[in-house]
Design brief:
Elements: E1 2-4, E2 12-14, H1 15-21, H2 28-37, E3 40-42, E4 45-46, E5 53-55, E6 59-62, E7 65-69
Parallel strand pairs: 1-7
Antiparallel strand pairs: 2-5, 3-4, 3-6, 6-7
Length: 70
């Protein structure tokens, strides 16, 4: 499990931002395609919205990797 820290001045990050932070994609346009073609689970539920808000305490699974937001 990998930990992603949300900056103190931010309440949330988006799923697209998480993908960019992790170097999985490089542009927002790539996020839409990636999410359509790959299974991404947010707290165990599939999500394809690049603008999905992710808050501290949530988990995102991409393939075998799980990201915990703090």
């Amino acid at each position: 499990m990998e930990t992603i820290k949300i900056k103190d001045d931010k309440e949330f990050i988006t799923l697209g931002q998480l993908l960019k932070i992790e170097g999985i994609i490089y542009t927002g346009g790539e996020a839409k395609i990636f999410l359509e073609e790959n299974e991404v689970l947010v707290d165990g539920q599939r999500d394809t919205r690049r603008g999905r808000k992710l808050y501290r305490g949530m988990n995102v699974q991409i393939g075998e990797e799980i990201y915990n937001l703090i």
